[in-house]
Write a structure and sequence with these properties.
Elements lengths: L9 E2 L3 H6 L9 H16 L2 E4 L6 H15 L3 H4 L12 E3 L5 E2 L2 E2 L3 E6 L8 H4 L15 H26 L17 E8 L15 E4 L5 E6 L6 E4 L5 E3 L7 E5 L1 H6 L9 E3 L7 E8 L6 E2 L3 H6 L13 E2 H12 L3
Parallel strand pairs: 1-2
Antiparallel strand pairs: 2-12, 3-6, 4-5, 6-7, 7-14, 8-13, 9-12, 9-14, 10-11, 10-13, 15-16
């Protein structure tokens, strides 16, 4: 469970884990052990942490934000060419105020992308999410850049989760196979207007209301000159995720909370952009298999029952059902 942390933990160099992540004996490496201990403490104390030394170039990270900003600066008519609709599988562009958190419109615009899959692959479970991603024609090379970034973020997330699996006392591959051997992913490219935002139809000025993420692990690529992401600690205080150049802000989601039997928390967070400048954030969400049945790992049932009255405190969930229910209630179409 999250603590009264006053700042987010920083894993200053995660590269020892990444260098050994394909080694079957990685758990015995001193550098890996040190990173695993840091991951364990960060996931227990905050559910959020920065990672540095992740191997994705700072140049690419910046380019992804820059090209996202270029898109959001286009005229609305151009952006609406890829308008999100239920018929498009909830993929594409949404205007400011169309995303809703707990009944209130969020003051951001976004492009939402999901891993593509063949029609009918998941039956009725996946029907609402079927369809190709809608990539804009402008700026040029948008799709190519994002696909490269998605590939790198997928690999990085898988490798961080191997460290988290070790931190929970399992093998490095606990999250693979039937849990996330074919991981679903979500990417949201988000633009927050500068403050004060004035629109007579919208009373709420929160960029994104308080929420937890749905899946396993999130990688947040945020502008380096604006502080807007806030994380709530156990005492109810909102702690700012101050940007660290070249880093990702990582956080764990609802599915990892269930798998860990509540040992790791999916922590509430929100976004309030008090800067007068437009803010860009690119969030990559690494998920379980779309049709995964998620319940606490056996190692967590056995290891963490003390004081809770029963060994399994979290009921199973089907990831795809969880995602679709959230998606269909989060958009004001």
């Amino acid at each position: 469970m999250a603590t009264d942390f006053k700042s987010l933990p920083v894993i200053a160099d995660i590269s020892p884990l990444l260098l050994k992540c394909d080694d079957p004996d990685m758990a015995e490496d001193p550098g890996v052990i040190q990173v695993v201990q840091q991951l364990d403490r960060a996931c227990r104390d905050a559910g959020f942490f920065y990672v540095i030394g992740h191997g994705i170039s700072e140049d690419l990270i910046k380019k992804v934000r820059e090209i996202t900003r270029e898109f959001f600066m286009l005229p609305y008519d151009e952006k609406l060419k890829i308008k999100m609709t239920p018929a498009a599988g909830y993929r594409g562009y949404q205007r400011i105020g169309e995303n809703v958190t707990k009944g209130k419109p969020d003051i951001h615009e976004a492009i939402d992308c999901y891993r593509e899959f063949k029609q009918g692959k998941y039956g009725d479970l996946g029907k609402a999410m079927e369809g190709p991603n809608q990539w804009p024609e402008k700026p040029h090379e948008f799709k190519e850049l994002m696909e490269e970034y998605l590939r790198l973020c997928t690999d990085l997330s898988r490798n961080i989760l191997r460290g988290i699996a070790l931190a929970l006392g399992g093998s490095p591959y606990e999250f693979e196979g039937k849990i996330a051997g074919e991981p679903f992913w979500v990417m949201r490219l988000i633009g927050y207007p500068g403050a004060p935002f004035t629109n007579g139809k919208l009373e709420n000025d929160v960029g994104c209301g308080a929420h937890t993420d749905y899946g396993l692990l999130t990688l947040v690529n945020q502008d380096e000159d604006k502080t807007a992401l806030q994380v709530r600690n156990l005492g109810g205080d909102w702690i700012s995720a101050i940007p660290i150049p070249g880093s990702f802000v990582c956080n764990i989601g609802d599915m990892l909370k269930i798998l860990s039997n509540g040992v790791y928390e999916s922590t509430l967070h929100r976004v309030i952009n008090n800067s007068p400048l437009y803010r860009v954030c690119v969030a990559f969400f690494y998920e379980t298999n779309f049709d995964a049945v998620v319940e606490p790992f056996d190692i967590c049932k056995d290891k963490y029952p003390e004081g809770r009255g029963e060994s399994q405190i979290f009921k199973r969930a089907v990831y795809g059902e969880h995602l679709v229910s959230k998606v269909q209630t989060n958009f004001a179409m």
